[in-house]
Structure formats: structure tokens, C-alpha cells
Design goal:
Largest sheet: 5 strands, parallel
Low-confidence stretches: none
Helix content: 55-70%
Number of helices: 7
Structural class: alpha/beta
Mean pLDDT: 77
Order of helices and strands: EHEHEHEHEHHH
Shape: elongated
Radius of gyration: 18 Å
Oligomer: single chain
Strand content: 15-25%
Distance between the termini: 44 Å
């Protein structure tokens, strides 16, 4: 079951979003937070596969929230959604999010964009975990678990390059 946290400040649209996504992907469990504080509390209390942040909400500093999620919950897929096109905001957002989506969009379009990203993200996490399991005994696995996904991916790629070089040499 995929769990998604939406950070969206308009309570009146929460049920509409929930129903729309349930019609497309009934195995998705969607929850909502109306502001940054509520989102961080939810993330601390529960496990989510993805967080979707509406960057146009006045009470939500989306970039700061996504950065905090990247640091505290690196395994959560981070998606920024905005109806405004601002190059600087897009750049700032893209450094702390995995995806930046432009709204408006239909639930089916959103699901068609998010589901493949979730599959790839899960695969990357599995690869990182395999790499962590193969670490030498002297390496502290508690430290490795705190590494952001981007660092894990980099180390995994380095390890794969080293393995390929060793294979070619032998």
C-alpha cells in the first residue's frame, strides 16, 4: 500500500483529491496536512512513501519543508506542485524535490506521473540497501542509514564502477 502525504492548505478540496485518486489508484492511502508544522508532525508520527507539497499555499514554505523532509526523511519521494512559473522558485524547489509538477492537472495525469516515479524511487532505495548490506565490517551501518539517498546512490555507483574495473582486470 502506497502512503502519500499532501500538504495542501484548502481543506475543502481534500476530500475531492482523496476520492479522485482513490478512483485511479485504490491502493493509495492519501492523508493531508494544511501547513508545514502539521506536515512535519505527520511525518514524525507515520511512514509515508511520498510527500506532495503545493508551493502556492501562503502558510506553507514549500522549499523549506522539502529541504527538511530531505534531511529528516530521505526515503520519502518529494514532489513540488505549483501553478506559477518562476525560474528561481523552480530551481530552489528542484534541489530539494525529486519532481516538480505544474498544475492544474487531472487525478489520472497526476497518478500517471507519480506511480512510475514511486517505482523508480523504491528501486533506488533497494539498490542503496543492498549496497549498505555489502559494506565492510568496519563501516558503521548506523551512519550509512542516515545518509541521504543522493549520497547512497553516489557511493553505490562508485562501488559498481570499482567492481566493473576489477572484473575487467581479471
Amino acid at each position: 500500500m502506497t502512503r502519500i502525504l499532501f500538504v495542501h492548505g484548502h481543506k475543502e478540496t481534500h476530500e475531492t483529491i482523496r476520492r479522485s485518486l482513490y478512483a485511479v489508484y485504490p491502493k493509495w492511502r492519501v492523508q493531508f496536512a494544511i501547513d508545514t508544522i502539521a506536515a512535519l508532525e505527520r511525518l514524525a508520527a507515520e511512514t509515508f512513501d511520498a510527500i506532495v507539497v503545493d508551493m502556492d499555499i501562503p502558510d506553507v514554505d514549500g522549499s523549506a519543508l522539502l529541504t527538511a523532509v530531505a534531511q529528516t526523511r530521505p526515503t520519502v519521494l518529494r514532489v513540488a506542485v505549483s501553478g506559477r512559473y518562476d525560474r528561481m522558485a523552480a530551481y530552489t524547489t528542484s534541489t530539494s524535490s525529486h519532481m516538480v509538477l505544474s498544475k492544474p492537472f487531472l487525478a489520472l495525469q497526476f497518478a500517471d506521473m507519480l506511480e512510475p516515479a514511486l517505482v523508480v524511487h523504491r528501486f533506488e532505495l533497494q539498490r542503496a540497501n543492498v549496497w549498505l548490506e555489502d559494506m565492510p565490517d568496519g563501516f558503521d551501518s548506523a551512519i550509512a542509514e542516515t545518509l541521504p539517498n543522493e549520497v547512497r546512490r553516489h557511493l553505490y555507483r562508485r562501488r559498481m564502477m570499482r567492481t566493473d574495473t576489477q572484473r575487467k582486470a581479471s
